[in-house]
Specification:
about 160 residues, about 80% helix, single chain, mainly alpha
Length: about 160
């Protein structure tokens, strides 16, 4: 099945006079929904980075804390990082699917701006945001591992 058959539910002849304007409206709405997903993704990243920073501050990095207090925080933080990584992967998949639809829609528009932008980014060998941001939970997990090891050494 060709991408047009999946994307275009009806032909212009079947749809009528408003086909082009309605198609453009759907395109704009779809691009806006992609932007909203990116904003929610950014908010989720802010939330998880803030919580993890607070947990690390509450763990063994604060002098005078009980040793037994550190390992549950390290465990909870590590679990939060796994959830965070899973969310990043989910948002990445969702955005990837949305951009594939946008690229298919652009085949029916005069300019293919997203396709062209993506081509230039690939030529410049720029890392995607997903590949960079997916490393951050692992960095926090490494810090929690160090807290856990420091707790074991202190015992």
């Amino acid at each position: 099945m060709a991408s047009d058959e999946r994307l275009l539910a009806v032909s212009e002849a079947q749809y009528g006079d408003r086909y082009k304007s309605d198609f453009l409206t759907q395109y704009r709405d779809f691009v806006a929904s992609t932007t909203q997903i990116s904003q929610r993704r950014h908010q989720a990243n802010q939330f998880f980075s803030t919580i993890n920073t607070l947990l690390l501050m509450a763990s063994g990095f604060i002098p005078g804390k009980e040793i037994a207090f550190n390992w549950p925080i390290a465990l909870a933080g590590g679990l939060l990082c796994l959830i965070w990584k899973h969310m990043i992967d989910g948002y990445s998949s969702l955005n990837g699917a949305k951009f594939r639809v946008i690229l298919e829609m652009e085949e029916h528009l005069p300019a293919a701006t997203y396709k062209t932008e993506w081509k230039y980014l690939q030529q410049a060998k720029v890392s995607t945001l997903s590949s960079v941001e997916s490393k951050v939970p692992w960095l926090f997990m490494g810090a929690y591992f160090l807290v856990y090891v420091a707790t074991l050494i202190k015992w």
